[in-house]
Each structure stands twice: as structure tokens, then as C-alpha cells.
Amino acid sequence: MFVPATFAIALVMTILSTICWGSFANTYKLTKNYRFEFYYWDYALGIVLISLVLAFTMGSTQATGESFLANVRWADGSNILCAAVGGFIFNIANLLLIAGIEMAGMAVAFPISIGIALVVGVVMSYAIQPKGNPTLLGVGVALAIVAVIMVGKAYGNLPTGGRTVSRKSVVVCLISGLLMGSFAPFVTRALTAGKTLTPYSIAVFFTLGALVCCLPVLTFFMRKPLVGTPVNFSGYLAARGSEHFLGLAGGIVWGLGTVFNFVAASFVGVAIAYAIGQASPMVAALWGVFVWHEFRGASAKAKFYVAGMFVSYLLALVAIAQAYRLR
């Protein structure tokens, strides 16, 4: 299987994972008047598809380590279960994050959900796999949280950014953040304990866990959505081919980032890879600024927050990179 041989390669892979995680939602933006619940079914299929493709290609080369199928036969069943549970938990968190964005807006949802996820995920992963300088890693996480808050402030200062924030929406974002941070320790365990899984194997079972999660959880949200009116599968079946394609493409982009993050984590540790990957809101904001022109006509204050976000994220990246070098 392919694994990074140097820190530089691992760092590039974590940055690519950030780009993928922050870019996949563009495929949903390209759909018109299409319910996210329908999009998400194809997205879930796409993440499984790309994880299998990479497992049987990059994850099965003879350069280093075991092939995907050999690793699955050899690894502990408990690690397979951990990877699948991690995907199941992630999927609930992701659905709640999307609902939180629709209910309260990015200005509220990102700082609460992603901020909590960063702290929970890094702390719990580092407790299991203490890899990297804890002080610099903590500084990097703090700077990343500042950047996420800046994202929220920037969107909150857009002309259309103001909205009433209910207690329900805040609770949804809180739960999303706790769950989003809780999946990382399961990945860490599968990568480090007993007869371990390779990162490619983890990605396959992680994405399968996310797909299985859709059966009860996404079906429930279709019938009792937190936002909007109930929908049924007839709407999904009636969707145009282009809409199904965009859902699959979104899943493939996100899944590619996930595999890269797990592969990089095998070199730098899950805490460091997760901390860099969870800076994806900054990438999403870049798309918003330069492609979707969401900040056209924005106030000087909003532009100030966007600039502060980029500076904070770059400083976070430097601190986290040094956390590995000075471990």
C-alpha cells in the first residue's frame, strides 16, 4: 500500500484532505431546489465507492505493508467494528451540522459545531496516541478555533447573515460538535491497537458505517426533518440524472479527502491530521469569496474577519506542523 515516506508528503495529504472536505458542498450548490436529504443518499454512496477504489489501488500496491484484503483477513474484528462505529457517529454529526447551518446559519453553526469537534477530537485522539508536541498542538488548535470563529463572524456580518437563533438550533449544533469530535478516537483505536487496520481499510469500514447509518437516521430525518417539510423516496427516484451525479461527485470528493487524512494520520498521528483536516470551513469560505461571490458588497467588518480567518489558519498550520517536528 502507499503510505507517506516523509513528513512533507504527509502534510500535503492533510492539506489536500482539508481542501476536499471544504469543497464537496459545491456539488450541492450546483443543484437547484433539490432537497439535501435526496442529495445525501448519493453522497453516501459516493464516499463508499471512492474508498473501495482507493483500497484496491493505492491500498493494495506491493510497495509497503499488506494489501487491503489481506489486512481485513488479519486484523482484529474489534478494529473493524471501531472503524464502522466511527463512520456511523460521523454521519449523525454531519447531518446535524447541515441542519444546524440551515436553522441558525454558518455564523452560529460553524463556531459551535466545528469548534467543539476540534477540541474533542484532538484531545481524545491525543490521549490514545500521544504523537506530537502537546503545547504546539494546543496552540495550533486554539488558532484553528479562532479561524473558525472568524468564519462565523464573517458570515454573520453579511447583509443576509442575521437571523433568529433558537435554543433548538444551538442544541443541535452542540450535539453535532460533540459527535463530530467523537469519531476520531475510534479511528485512532483501529489504527493503533492490536492487529491494526491500514488507513485504507479503516476508510472502507468507516464509509460503510456512514452508509448504514443513513438507513435509520436519514430515513427518520426525511419523515421528521428538523428543517422543512417531510419528503419520501419518490422524490429521490424522480430526481434528474445530473442531480444524482452531483451527489455521487460530492461523496467522491469528500471520501478522497477522508482517505488522504487517514493515510497521513498513519505517519503524523490522528490528532495532528484531524486538527488540520477540520480547518475545512476556511476552504469553504474561500469558495464563497472567490467563486460564489458571497461577500460581494460585504461590509468592511466582514472582509476584516475573512482576512483574519486566513491569517489564523495559516498560523495554525505552522504551529501544528511544528508540533510534529518538535515532538
The topology string of helices and strands comes to HHHHHHHHHHHHHH
Q: How many helical stretches?
A: 14
Unreliable sequence segments = none
Oligomer: single chain
- Global structural class: mainly alpha
- Gyration radius, rounded: 19 Å
The total count of strands amounts to: 0
Helix content: over 70%
- The tally of structural domains comes to 1
- Summarize the main sheet: none
Distance between the termini: 26 Å
- Average predicted confidence as pLDDT: 89
Tell the overall outline: globular
Detailed description of the structure:
With 327 residues, this protein is mainly alpha-helical. The chain has one domain. 77% of the residues lie in helices and 0% in strands. Helix 6 packs antiparallel against helix 7 and helix 7 (134-156) packs antiparallel against helix 14. The longest helix has 28 residues, at 77-104. The radius of gyration is 19 Å and the shape is globular. It starts with 6 loop residues before the first helix and ends with a helix. The model has no long low-confidence stretch (mean pLDDT 89).
What is shown here, in short?
The chain has helices spanning 7-23, 26-29, 36-56, 68-74, 77-104, 106-128, 134-156, 167-192, 199-223, 233-237, 241-268, 270-277, 280-290, 300-325. With 327 residues, the chain is mainly α.
What are the SSEs and their pairings?
Layout: H1 7-23, H2 26-29, H3 36-56, H4 68-74, H5 77-104, H6 106-128, H7 134-156, H8 167-192, H9 199-223, H10 233-237, H11 241-268, H12 270-277, H13 280-290, H14 300-325
Helix pairs in contact: 1-11, 1-12, 1-13, 3-9, 3-11, 5-6, 5-8, 5-9, 6-7, 6-8, 6-12, 7-12, 7-14, 9-11, 11-12
